[in-house]
Amino acid sequence: MSKRSARGGSRLAQVSAPEPEPELEVAELQLSSDEEYESGEESDLVSLSGGEDDAGVDREIEDAVLGYMAAAEKNRQDGGSASGSDDEGEHTDSGSGEEGEERSQEGGEGRQGAAEPQSANLHGAAAAAAVADDGDDDEQRPDDPASDSSEDERPNRNTIGDVPLVWYKDEEHVGYDAEGKKLARRPRRDRLEKHLAASDNIAKEMRTVYDEYNDEEIELSKEEMRMIQRIRAGQFPHVEVNPYEPEVDWFTRDVEVMPFNAAPEPKRRFVPSKWEEKKVVKLVRALRKGWIKRGQVEPEKPTAYLIWEDDGKTLDKTATGLTYIPAPKLKLPGHEESYNPAPEYLPTEEERNAEQLLDDEDRPQFVPTAYDCLRRVPAYANFIKERFERCLDLYLCPRTRRKRLIIEDPEVLVPKLPKPQDLQPFPTLLSVRYTGHSKVVRSVCPDPTGQWLLSGSDDGTVRLWEVRTGRCMQCWRLEEPVSCVAWCPSPGLSLLAAASGKRLLLLPSGVGNEEQEAATEAALAACTADSSGSSSDGIEDGQLVSWQRWQGGGEGQGGSSGSGRGSGSGGVVVLHKFGIKHVTWHARGDYFATTAPTGNTQAVLVNQLSKGVTQNPFRKNRGRVVRVLFHPSKPFFFVATQQNVRVYNLAKQALAKKLVSGSGVITSMAIHPTGDHLIVGSEDKRLCWFDLDLSAKPYRSLRYHQYAVRGAAFHRTYPLLASSSDDATVHVFHGMVYADLMTNPLIVPVKILRGHEMVDYQGVLDVAFHPTQPWIFTAGADATICLFVNP
C-alpha cells in the first residue's frame, strides 16, 4: 500500500471521532508540524479558539457541516467501483478504533459515552471525504510552475516592468505578455463564492494566494507551506539544512617529527645581524644627544581647530595636481565701518572738501558716516564693483607659496662682514657746525680744493664758507629760494652756479688766485658777448634761454659789498622758462645741465659756458625728470625720472640702457668715480646700487632709513658712500669696488651720523664728501650745516 493511500485510510478512520468545525478564517490557519507529517498523522482540519460557553452552538454547526460532507462522500462512493469502496471501507473500519477515540477526547470532556461512537463515525466520514477530495485534486491538478520553486525562477506573465498597477485600474487588461498581447483582466470572485469554495475544499482554498501583478491565483504546495511554517517559527526554511554540522579540523595540531625542509640551518642565523647593529648604534646616538626623551611625559597640547574653511585645504591637491593655495583674506572691517562710529572716526567738513579735490585714484573709497539706527543705513553703492574686482583678483592674480624658514639661531642670518675698525678712515665725529642761514638749507657743495664750501637755502642766499673755521666769507642775496648750488670742477676757474627760481646764476667766487679770477671774468664775458645788445627783459621768441649779465654782488664778512679780488665784478644769469630744481657740471667744467621738472619738453637743457649756447637734447621725455648726471669719463648722460633711469650715449645720440629701480619716486642720484656703478635714492626709503656692467636691475637694494632718502654721494678717492634722509640721519657705508669683474662690490655699513633735527618732517636734505679728506658735509632742515670728520 502506498503512503498516500495509507494516509487516506487513517483520515477515513477519523469519521468516528467528531470535532467542532468552527467558521474558517485565513488568519487562524494552523499548519501541521513536521513530526506529524513524518509519522503519517496529518490533519487538514482548521480549529478555532473559542470559549466554553459557545461550545453547544459550535457543535450543532459542526454536526450539520459534517453530515453534509458525509452524505456527499456516500454518494461519491456509490457511484464508484465496488473494489474501491470495499478497500476504503476496510481502511475505515481499521482506523476507526484508535483515531475515533482520539478525536472524541479533543471534541470536549462533557460528551456522553453512548454518543461518542456515533459522533466519531460521523466526523471520520467527513474527514475521509475531505481527504478523498484532496487526493483527487492532487492527482488531477496539472503541475504548477510555481510549486517547489522561488518566485524569481518562475517567469512573469506580465511584462510591464516596475509600473504602478494603479495605472491599469480602469482598464480591461492588467498589462502585456512577452509577445505584446494584452492580458485580459480575469473576473474576481466575491466573498460568497470564496466561502462556498472554502466549504468545498478548505485545504486547497487556504493554500491559494492572489498574484495581483499577473492577475492569477497561485496554489502553494505543501512543501512551501512547511517552509512558511518554519520561517514563522524562526527556523531554516529547508529541512535538510543542519545548523549544527560537526566541525572539520582542517589543520592538525600534532607535532611532526621531521620538518618540511631538511636543509641545515644557515650561518646567518648564528652571526649577529649587521642591520640590527646599525639600528642599535642609531638609537644609542639619539639617546646621547637627547633626541629621545626617557621618562618625560609631554604635556597635553590644547586642541586647536581652524576657524576659516580655506585654511584646511592648504595641503589638498586640486584637479590639476597643483597644491591648493588659499586666497588672501580681505581686511576685516574696523570701527570706521560701523553704522554709528565714534566721533573721532568721522571726517570734518574741511577733510570732506579736501577729499573732493583729490583725484579719483587718491580719493578714499569709503567715508565713515553715522546713522542713528541700523534701519536708516542705505545699500552700499560700491558693493557690486568691489565684488567684481575681488573676483578678478582671485581669477587673474597668480599666487605663489613662500616657505617659512625655521631658524633657531638668528646669528646665522647676519653676513660675515669685516669690523668697522678695520675699514677706517670714515667720518664719525661732528667737528664744525655752520650757522647763518635762516631757513632750510637745500644744497651744499665743496670746491675742488676742499678749502671752501658753498651752500644754498630757502632764505634766498648763497653763502661761501671756510671749511676749517666755519666762517662765512661771501653771501649772495637772491630774490627767490635757492634749490641747488654747484662748484665748477675746472681747476682754472673759480666759478659757482646757483639755481634760484627760473634763473641760473654763474657767480665768480672771489676766493681764487689772480689767474683763476681773470680766467673766470673772461669766460663770463665770452658767454654773454653775443647777447650784449639784446633786451634784458625776458626770453625772445624761438630761444630756449636768455644769457644776460647780472650786476648784483656779494656781501663780505663785515657786511660791505665785496670782500676780495674780483668782488666788484658781477655774474651771468641764464633765464629759463620753467623753475630750475637741479644743476650739474661736466667733469671738464665747460658744460653744465639744468633740470626743470615742470618743463615738459624743455625739462633738460645742456649749456656750454665757453660759447654761451643752450641746446635741448630731447624732444620728448619719458616721465617727469628729477635728476641728470654726466659720466665722469665717457660720453654718457644719465637722466632720472620718477620711476627709472635712462642712460644715453651722447656720441651716438641713442639710448644705451634703461635702469629700473622698482622702488618709489626717485629723489637723488650719484655716480661712482669709475663710472661703472650708480646709487639711486627714492621716497620709499630705499637706496638702490646699480652695477652698470651687470644688469639693468639693482645689484643691492638697501632699506634702512625710516623716511624718504633725500641725498646720496660717493667719495672721490676713498671707498665711501653716504645717504641722507628725512629721519635726520646720515648713513655712511664702506663701498669697495674691485677691478676684478668676477668680484662683487663690498658694501658694509660703518656709521650712522646724527647732528640735525627734524623740522616739518624734513631732516637732512643734501650730503657731500670732502674732495680730499674722509669728511662729509650735511645740509639740514634746521638751517644748519654740519661737518663730520674722522678721529
Automatic annotation (TrEMBL):
Listed GO MF terms: ribonucleoprotein complex binding
Top-rank taxon, per record: Eukaryota
Main location per the UniProt record: nucleus
Region Disordered, residue ranges: 1-163
GO BP, sorted A to Z: maturation of 5.8S rRNA from tricistronic rRNA transcript (SSU-rRNA, 5.8S rRNA, LSU-rRNA); maturation of LSU-rRNA from tricistronic rRNA transcript (SSU-rRNA, 5.8S rRNA, LSU-rRNA)
Residue ranges occupied by any BOP1 N-terminal domain in the UniProt entry: 168-427
PROSITE patterns named in the record: WD_REPEATS_1 (PS00678), WD_REPEATS_2 (PS50082), WD_REPEATS_REGION (PS50294)
Keyword Manganese set for record: no
UniProt keyword annotation of Repeat present: yes
Ranges of Acidic residues composition bias in the record: 33-44, 51-63, 85-101, 133-151
Keywords of the record: Nucleus, Repeat, Ribosome biogenesis, rRNA processing, WD repeat
Compartments it resides in: Nucleus, Nucleolus; Nucleus, Nucleoplasm
A cellular component annotation (GO) from this entry: preribosome, large subunit precursor
Similarity-based family: Belongs to the WD repeat BOP1/ERB1 family.
Job description of the protein: Required for maturation of ribosomal RNAs and formation of the large ribosomal subunit.
Listed name of the protein: Ribosome biogenesis protein BOP1 homolog
Organism, as annotated: Chlorella vulgaris (Green alga)
